[in-house]
Amino acid sequence: MTRLVSSIICVWASLLLSISAQYLQNEALLQAQATCVEYLGIPEARLEQYNISVYPPDRDTMCMIRCAGIVLGFWEDEQGLLIDGAKQLFPDSGDVDLVAQKVLHCAERKLLSCDPADACARAYYSFRCAMRKFEPSNSALSTDQKLTPEKFLKAQIVCANILRIPHDHLKLYNQGVYPDDAETRCLLRCIGVRLELYSDAMGPNLDRLHSEFAIDQPLEEFKTRATLCCEANRPLIQDYCTAAYRNLYLCFREHFNAFTSQNRQTLLSHTSSPQTCIDLESDILLYGDDV
């Protein structure tokens, strides 16, 4: 009986400590918001919104978030989102490191559409990612499976050689530019097949794409949006290459842009070298006969 009582006390103590820690984190945010509202001259009525976690995307709110981020140590204009400081904002989670990874993915993608000089907007959208409640994920890829810029470049070079893509196109590709022309459409089909991101029979590999590019998004939401995009493309598809270009690249362009932007230096510093006939023959066999 004594052991049972002791166990119950320990459980309650742990629960109270957890609640207290969460309360202190929220309290710190509330205090920072109040300070920044006063400092920036924002109407006090807006503070009531912020205190119930309502953050509309207007200039006052964006700049208030930037101010609060500086106060709490989760934002710095030059460095951007400071993930260690942002951890205090995370909803309760059993795996803080996984949530941090998802937050960074989310922020990288959101900031692509922001003016680099607009610190308020950048802070705001990064904050929204940090405050988001992410669903548990069981589809994380191992380090060996994860797509790297080196793997992507290798697939791109192999496919460009197989398809005899002009060299000037490669310069565009290394900058993350994939124009809607016959060569590029077939190149993206080849890359998708080689990297197991796409197949002619099944279309985009949504589970793999989610694990690679969008672990910060709920899986079902990701799949729903992708399915709607592919359905909208159906009347526009005339051949396998067009299908791959529209359903793989255009439907997931936001994610591909984030990947190329994040790895821009690696992509731009690469200089392609021609493969031997033996290498090409092997790669053609790997890719298939219907290139």
Number of domains: 2
CATH third-tier fold name of the largest domain: Recoverin, domain 1
Oligomer: single chain
* Average pLDDT number: 78
Uncertain ranges: 4-25, 272-291
Which radius of gyration do the C-alpha atoms yield?
24 Å
Helix proportion of residues, in percent?
Answer: 55-70%
Query: Which architecture of the largest domain would the CATH scheme give at its second level?
Result: Orthogonal Bundle
What top-tier CATH class of the largest domain fits best? Mainly Alpha
Structure description:
A hairpin with a 3-residue loop joins strand 1 and strand 2. The termini are far apart. Helix 1 runs antiparallel to helix 2 and helix 1 crosses helix 3. This protein is mainly α and 291 residues long. The C terminus is likely disordered. It folds into 2 domains: 105 residues, Pheromone/general odorant binding protein domain (Recoverin, domain 1, Orthogonal Bundle); 121 residues, Pheromone/general odorant binding protein domain (Recoverin, domain 1), CATH 1.10.238.20. 31% of the residues are buried. It has a two-stranded antiparallel sheet. Strands 3-4 form a two-stranded antiparallel sheet. It comes from Aedes aegypti (Yellowfever mosquito). InterPro entries: PBP/GOBP (IPR006170), PBP_GOBP_sf (IPR036728). GO terms for molecular function: odorant binding. Keywords: Disulfide bond, Secreted, Signal.
